[in-house]
Design brief:
399 residues, five-stranded antiparallel sheet, 1 helix, globular
């Protein structure tokens, strides 16, 4: 059977471009210039192989179709700096929260909601912070904002937000659900009408019933660490995270511990797999594998876990300007982005500062291609890999 065509979108958010290339041969099929995509809000998979992202400089939500003759399908004005991005399971109703940007403290309380079918949008004021967001279906859409300090899930009716008066009026939640103060990481399972929030205690979950959320017992991490990132696996109906433990001082990041955490939503079973020390953050889901990148002064690698969580490790060439011992892994350093599609076996890994993308065949662990872009991909850039019908839009939260 012929594999479905795959495309990779790579954002150089520092230098302001989005590259679109066919996988694995690297043929350029599209490009945007003068677009600084929010790395934190990331890319949101939409039906039909499309993606959404936020241009943080122009203050626009972009809808991109890498399989169409015209890459840019729509642009909708939104409040920035974009913190998180999510849509309802149909891909029509979308929400963008604002947060930190390049500031030392959160300062914006603006939330933008939009109807991608009509182009109608509205901005309202909620609560200053760094809120996560999910947009729930299973009836009239609801917006669930995950706040911190104090922690809570604030539930709003989407229609109320979209119908708000001009001038960014403050809005009051329709319902509230308490959470711990340290929430970070959000996911939604449309098939069971659940929303999930990662906290130090574990993964808090709630189920939609009518226009409210009903809490259920949290899912424990089952390890002396916690996840800061939460992702739905549309292939196996599971939640994934990376558990980080070890020293709290970020200058001791080479000693951080990392474990892959997978919770099967149908059986309730949790599996934890050791990844090794250093910096591991976002993950990517391919057809039969889950991919992680690990940065460490002793050598970087791509880690591929198969269906049985057996790992294959692929060495990656070092980056000039990589995080060093005694410094933090966040500020003024190069990093990597990793991308995959549940409809393909390709894994793409960026090499920050070098403008390179490694294309790995997950079935063999061999590098199929290495592209050199004409922008450096400082800070690692950000990337998303799609096929037209890969079911990635079954995860309606930006990554």
């Amino acid at each position: 059977m012929t594999a479905a065509p795959a495309v990779l979108l790579v954002s150089d958010h520092v230098h302001g471009s989005v590259h679109v290339r066919a996988v694995p041969d690297g043929t350029e099929t599209g490009r945007l210039t003068g677009r600084h995509v929010s790395e934190h809000a990331g890319f949101l998979a939409l039906p039909g192989g499309r993606v959404a992202c936020v241009d943080d400089r122009r203050g626009e939500l972009l809808v991109l179709d890498p399989f169409a003759d015209e890459l840019l399908e729509a642009a909708v004005p939104v409040a920035v700096p974009a913190e998180h991005l999510a849509c309802d399971p149909s891909g029509r109703w979308i929400a963008v929260t604002t947060g930190l940007g390049r500031n030392t403290e959160p300062w914006s309380d603006l939330l933008t909601v939009a109807d991608l079918r009509t182009g109608e949008a509205a901005r309202v004021r909620t609560r200053v912070g760094e809120p996560g967001v999910t947009v729930l279906g299973g009836g009239e859409p609801l917006v669930a904002l995950r706040h911190r300090e104090p922690g809570e899930l604030a539930v709003h009716r989407f229609a109320d937000l979209l119908g708000a008066r001009p001038g960014c009026p403050p809005v009051t939640p329709h319902a509230l659900l308490p959470l711990p103060d340290d929430g970070h990481g959000d996911a939604q399972a449309p098939f069971s009408r659940h929303v999930f929030s990662a906290t130090g205690e574990g993964v808090h979950r709630a189920r939609r019933e009518g226009d409210v959320l009903v809490p259920e017992p949290p899912i424990p991490w089952e390890a002396p660490a916690r996840g800061w990132y939460l992702r739905l696996d549309t292939r196996r109906r599971a939640l994934w995270s990376t558990l980080r433990g070890g020293p709290t001082d970020p200058r001791r990041w080479p000693d951080w511990t990392n474990q892959a955490w997978r919770h099967d939503l149908e059986t309730g079973r949790t599996r934890v797999t050791e990844l090794g020390p250093g910096l591991v953050f976002r993950l990517a889901l391919a057809r039969h594998h889950t991919a992680f990148t690990r940065i460490h002064p002793d050598g970087d690698e791509l880690i591929l876990l198969d269906a049985h969580d057996t790992d294959r490790r692929v060495p990656l060439p070092a980056m000039d300007g990589a995080p060093r011992r005694g410094g933090t892994p966040w500020e003024g350093v190069q990093r990597r982005a990793v991308a995959a599609s549940p409809g393909a076996d390709w894994i793409a890994v960026t090499r920050g500062g070098h403008g390179e993308v490694h294309v790995i065949d997950a079935r063999t662990g061999h590098e199929a291609a290495r592209w050199r872009l004409d922008t450096p991909l400082d800070h690692g850039g950000h990337a998303v890999l799609r096929t037209r019908s890969d079911s990635a839009d079954g995860d309606p939260v930006g990554r």
